[in-house]
Each structure stands twice: as structure tokens, then as C-alpha cells.
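Following the same procedure, sequence and fold were stored together, as reproduced here:

>
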Amino acid sequence: MKLIRQVDKMQAWSDRARRTGKTISLVPTMGCLHKGHLRLVRHARQQADVVVVSIFVNPMQFGPKEDFRRYPRRLERDLDMLKKAGADIVFASDVREMYPQPLLTVLEVPNLSWNLCGRSRPGHFRGVCTVVAKLLHIVKPHTAVFGAKDFQQATVVQRMVRDLNFDVRLVINPTVREEDGLAMSSRNVYLTPAERRDAAVLNRALKEGRKLVRAGNKDTRDVVKTMRQMISAKAGRVDYIKIVNAETLEDVTKAGRGNVIALAVFFGRTRLIDNIKI
């Protein structure tokens, strides 16, 4: 496994690989890897000859009061995990390398970025789109693999790629969960033991919401109220619980097949997201 830190060296490596006919699959991450990331790496291996994993904690995705400096950075551990998982290249750049000058050019998918996490984290998806676009230009992959836990992110990036004719195929892998149903996330390491136990309610609440809709309760307010009560009983502080159109990400008042239930909830200081499709 090779570690590359410079943008120009990563581009040159990808150019050589493409000239020899090799296909490249990219797994973008912010590090602090877990089993969910490793499953993405294994899935990427099925898509291409070469797997590149990027590790970059992107400051553009963090608001002024969010956890950019606190975000866990464990490069040596991540490298060891990726080597065992079979990654070929790790592109681990830093902020000065990715943004050597003040950035004047940014990308955004406005309508899809305004609801859900976009409402709570203004500018977040501008940072996501901009860094993903940079990574696609730097690594030059044929495929890029994302996780379904970040449902809004995947939807936004898919639209950006389609609108701007990026020459890459996106693959969205199902959410990987712990035994109690909690979605695997790098932020889970922030949870105290008690918060970790309580956070398992998120998956239970999502399943209950889906069950209610399937049973005929189409009223979004009733479904959300039940879910909110379940989560509040476990000391979760709800940022949002919404049922949305899976393509437009607009709120629906009557839930039905194909809609997505999405939520963001704080346990202590840690904000967790999850979703389920009806």
C-alpha cells in the first residue's frame, strides 16, 4: 500500500494507472475509520483494479461552532486498517495542500442542500460538493463509493455529478450497523458509555416510523411525534426528524412508499444522523 500526500503526485499516479488500462475506485473519507469504511473499501475492490482511499478532514464542511479541531485524527491506525483491508493507495493530504490559496471557487446544489442537515448546518454541503469535486479531479476515479448513512450527502453528490457531467460512476453502499442497530460513524467515539447505549434508540425509532407508515398511518406529524417521544425517553435531543421525497428532499405531509425518514439527534454534545427508506 502506498501513501501519497501531494496533489500533483496523486494526479500523476492516476494518470499512469489509467494509461496502463487500470480502473480506479475512490473511497472518500475523513479518517477515524471503522468497519463501515472497510466495507466500502471491499466494495470498491469489486468495482475496479485499484482502490484509492482519501483521508482528509475538510474544514469547509464544519461550521464556526462545530467540531473541526475536535474531530478525531488517527492516521497511523487508519493506515494499518486500510492495509489489512486491501487498499492500494491512501491519499492523505492536509489543508495547506488541498487549499493552498483562499478558495474563490465553490460548488453547491442549492435546492437539495437547504433541508435536513443543510438547514441545521448552513454551508455544509457547499463544502462537501467542493471537496468531492476536487477529489474527483485529483484521483480521477472511474467509480466512487459512498455510504447510505449520509443519505443527503449521497443525493447531493449524485446530482452534482449528473449536472456537471463528471466522468465517474457513483456507488452507494448500504449503511453498516452495530449489533444493536446504531449506524457506524466516526463520531460514535465521542459518546459516553451511557450515551452509546441510549443512541441505539435511533434505529428502533426509524423502524417504528416505517412500521407506522406501512400500517396505514400516513400523517407525517403523527409518525414524527411517536419517534420523537421514543428518542426523548432516551435523553436524545432532536435536531430534526423528517419524512422527505427521496429525490427532491422536500418534506411530505403524507408519507408513503419510496419516501425516506431522516433524523439528526444529539446525545450529549455528539450529533448523529441516520435514515431509513419506506
User: Anything to note?
Assistant: The radius of gyration is 19 Å. The longest strand covers residues 237-244.
